[in-house]
Design brief:
- This protein is of the alpha/beta class.
- The protein folds into two domains: about 100 residues, NAD(P)-binding Rossmann-like Domain (Rossmann fold, 3-Layer(aba) Sandwich); about 70 residues.
- A five-stranded parallel β-sheet has the order 3-2-1-4-5, with helices on both faces.
- Helices cover about 45% and strands about 15% of the residues.
- The protein has eight helices and seven strands, in the order βαββαβαβββααααα.
- The site of 1,4-dihydronicotinamide adenine dinucleotide has 22 residues, from helix 1 and strand 2.
- Ligand SHN binds next to helix 1 and helix 4.
């Protein structure tokens, strides 16, 4: 399986199953997509900003639901294996992505695994184990959260710095050196994490140093 980032803005996601797992997937996709959850019962959970429809389609009905909702992705999160299998078949026949929550390895074409995710916007890190060990994905997410602290702010600094350097016609090789120095500087990481510096301040410091260096050149 190959990790990709998929933009679900304006897309629909159809979730079958209103248990804790269906709720978790609904919350996740509702960040961007229009989510519809179909289930005979809904656990007392947060389903995010999703539409809930009370129904218990049998395996022969799921294709009709998919055709009606016309989703980009279908999630099979019921506790009924025959229903989940029918959902996967119907999605595959229609070329729609499918996430089966009740399956680990041996996945079919078009199937999607939902990774454990760390967000430090705009930085995103996803962890998966090929479906083998979801508990490990969850554990590693916890570990990585600490490592990634400040990465969002660092991304903002790099992006603004690149624009500034381009605007000043700094040569591409020199631009790369400067950005690499910033991103590998333990002092800047610490300053961003502790809030003792911020994006405009870092950029002012770096550009100040760069113009001094320029001035020193023969
Ligand atoms: C294949 C996959 C399909 C998919 O759902 O996309 C899948 C499948 C299954 N999960 C099962 C169990 C558990 N899943 C979790 C947790 C998470 N599971 C997630 C993803 C995935 N789970 C995909 C693979 C990801 C990968 O490659 O690693 C996470 C990362 C993302 C999310 O779901 O949002 C989320 C953590 C989110 C976070 O906190 O960051 C926990 C831990 C807990 O609940 O505390 C347990 C109990 C402990 C255990 O069993 O490991 C079972 C057995 C059911 C049974 O029979 O009992 C199956 C089915 C099977 O394995 O056959
Ligand atoms: N991917 C993951 O992280 C995990 C996956 N699982 C798997 O996912 C499945 C769902 O997990 P839970 O939410 O904990 O189970 P659950 O049993 O609490 O919920 C299942 C939901 O499916 C609904 N349902 C039953 N028949 C349906 C139908 N025909 N159409 C639509 N909805 C229907 C039920 O009303 C219930 O709301 C489990 O059977 C298990 O195999 C379990 C734990 C974690």
């Amino acid at each position: 399986m190959i990790p990709l980032l998929h933009d679900f803005t304006g897309a629909r996601v159809l979730v079958f199953g209103g248990g804790p797992v269906g709720a978790r997937k609904a919350r996740r996709f509702a960040r961007e997509a229009e989510v519809v959850v179909v289930s005979p019962a809904f656990a007392d959970r947060d389903f995010g900003d999703s539409e809930r429809v009370r129904a218990a389609p049998d395996p022969a009905d799921v294709a009709n639901w998919i055709d009606r909702v016309d989703p980009a992705l279908v999630v099979a999160a019921t506790d009924d294996e025959a229903v989940n299998a029918a959902i996967a078949d119907a999605a595959r026949e229609r070329g729609i992505l499918v996430n089966r929550a009740d399956e680990s390895g041996g996945r079919d074409p078009g199937s999607v695994v939902v990774p454990a995710t760390i967000r430090e916007d705009p930085v995103v890190v996803a962890v998966a184990t090929g479906g083998r060990a979801p508990a490990l994905s969850k554990y590693l997410r916890g570990e990585l959260e600490e490592t990634l602290s400040g990465a969002g702010e660092m991304a903002t600094v790099c992006s603004a710095l690149r624009s500034e350097l381009k605007a000043r016609d700094v040569a591409p090789t020199r631009r790369r050196e400067i950005v690499t120095d910033v991103v590998t500087s333990p002092d800047i990481w610490t300053a961003l994490r502790t809030g003792t510096s911020n994006c405009p301040q870092v950029i002012e410091d770096v550009l100040g140093e760069e113009s001094t260096t320029d001035g020193d050149r023969p």
